[in-house]
């Protein structure tokens, strides 16, 4: 088995992830956004808004020309749709077929939803949307309760159950609230809607993960996808035997890669370009993977009681020189248009960096913060705390 150095493995991962992005991309800005979603396979949706939400942040980091209306336009144009990957996400419509495997599992009971199906209520919800057009959960509030129950909460549960099993899709969002419509009115007729076999679904998971991430383990390809790891392992065994995946050793672990993908290592990596990442960025979402490949130990502390937080409520990992070198806790005060960096921490023995490396880092951070402020519609920057001298200058 061939092997890669730790540095080569990181480079392969970053190039596959599109980080840092190329200076000049072909085509329109919105086509670049679609290409990024198709390359990554999904973009996680998150509601935390202390800075721009994670789905916008993740795409902005790969498309310098990204605009906040891109996702809505892509959904409206039926080039992107909402469903679950390991969490709520935007996915490319070209991959719609592969969402059907899980949708069928929810519909047949092979996978259990967190809501118990109320079939009478679900039927009523479908009938209303069929006759009235796209509706939100609030459109069902205040309905007179009948047998089986109306009311906001039961209707919301019915909508989400129908969404998870594929009868409804999110046709748009209004003030970030889901607008539901019948699936047949959302999916273009040109899209393949045949349900994949278990084998086809597993091969899709393997191939998409490796295209987006460069290299991977079976557990990473089935991350938070219930009942899929045995399918993925079977697919990997078959694909390894036929040569459609190969294995490579990194730090003593046998990772899978797609044949020819190691040729990416011949391309340059924009190491001097610094990127401020979202905690929900595709690169970072699997914390154990980041620990193994990058030696980066990360915990999102917004879910940790304040007295127990080590770095801050919403720390953003910092990528520079092909490494994850720090984190900064940020919040935008939208009333005053101020980007507050509450805590900036550079990893490891900062004092051993040397003045030249420290100056290069500070310059790269300043350059990136200029764009980051624009992206977050901030006009002023305040750094309250940092462990690197000269960062406030």
Give an account of the 3D structure:
Among the domains are: 97-185, Arc Repressor Mutant, subunit A (Orthogonal Bundle); 275-383, Aminopeptidase, CATH 3.40.630. Helices cover 35% and strands 18% of the residues. The chain is built from 12 helices and 13 strands. It has helices at 6-17, 29-40, 54-60, 70-76, 100-108, 119-132, 152-164, 198-213, 218-221, 229-242, 287-294, 355-375, and strands spanning 3-4, 43-44, 80-84, 88-92, 168-174, 177-182, 246-250, 253-257, 275-276, 315-320, 323-333, 338-346, 380-383. A hairpin with a 4-residue loop joins β11 (323-333) and β12 (338-346). The radius of gyration is 23 Å and the shape is globular. The model is unreliable at 144-151 (pLDDT under 50).
Strand content range:
15-25%
The value of Rg in angstroms is: 23 Å
Shape: globular
For this structure, the CATH topology of the domain at 275-383 is Aminopeptidase
- Tally the helices: what do you get? 12
CATH class of the domain at 275-383: Alpha Beta
Distance between the termini: 50 Å
Write out the strand line-up for the largest beta sheet, numbering strands in chain order: 9-10-11-12-13
Number of strands: 13
Major sheet characteristics: 5 strands, mixed
Q: Helix proportion of residues, in percent? A: 25-40%
Structural class: alpha+beta
Spans where pLDDT lies below 50 across 5 or more residues: 144-151
N to C succession of SSEs: EHHEHHEEHHHEEHHHEEEHEEEHE
Task: Look at the structure and give the mean pLDDT.
Answer: 93
CATH architecture of the domain at 275-383: 3-Layer(aba) Sandwich
């Amino acid at each position: 088995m061939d092997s890669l150095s730790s540095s080569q493995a990181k480079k392969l991962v970053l190039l596959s992830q599109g980080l840092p992005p190329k200076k000049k991309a072909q085509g329109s800005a919105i086509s670049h956004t679609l290409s990024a979603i198709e390359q990554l396979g999904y973009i996680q949706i998150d509601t935390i808004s202390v800075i721009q939400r994670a789905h916008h942040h993740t795409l902005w980091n790969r498309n310098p020309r990204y605009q906040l209306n891109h996702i809505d336009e892509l959904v409206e144009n039926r080039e992107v749709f909402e469903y679950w990957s390991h969490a709520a996400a935007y996915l490319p419509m070209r991959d719609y077929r592969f969402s059907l495997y899980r949708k069928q599992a929810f519909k047949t009971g092979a996978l259990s939803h967190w809501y118990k199906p109320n079939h009478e209520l679900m039927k009523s919800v479908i009938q209303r949307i069929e006759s009235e057009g796209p509706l939100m959960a609030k459109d069902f509030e205040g309905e007179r309760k009948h047998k089986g129950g109306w009311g906001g909460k039961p209707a919301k549960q019915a909508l989400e159950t129908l969404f998870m099993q594929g009868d409804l899709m999110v046709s748009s969002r209004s003030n970030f609230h889901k607008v539901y419509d019948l699936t047949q009115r959302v999916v273009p007729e040109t899209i393949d809607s045949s349900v994949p076999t278990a084998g086809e679904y597993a091969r899709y998971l393997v191939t998409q993960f490796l295209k987006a991430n460069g290299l991977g383990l079976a557990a990473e390809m089935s991350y938070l996808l219930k009942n899929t790891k045995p399918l993925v392992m079977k697919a990997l065994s078959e694909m390894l035997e036929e040569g459609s995946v190969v294995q490579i050793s990194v730090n003593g672990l046998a990772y899978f890669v797609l044949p020819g993908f190691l040729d990416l290592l011949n391309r340059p990596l924009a190491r001097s370009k610094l990127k401020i990442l979202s905690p929900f960025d595709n690169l970072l979402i699997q914390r154990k993977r980041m620990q193994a490949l990058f030696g980066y130990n990360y915990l999102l502390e917004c879910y940790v009681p304040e007295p127990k937080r080590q770095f801050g409520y919403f720390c953003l990992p910092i990528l520079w020189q092909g490494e994850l070198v720090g984190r900064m806790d940020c919040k935008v005060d939208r009333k005053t248009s101020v980007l507050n960096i509450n805590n900036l921490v550079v990893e490891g023995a900062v004092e051993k960096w040397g003045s030249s490396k420290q100056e290069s880092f500070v310059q790269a951070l300043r350059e990136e913060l200029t764009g980051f402020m624009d992206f977050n519609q901030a006009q002023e920057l305040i750094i309250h705390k940092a462990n690197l001298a000269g960062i406030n200058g």
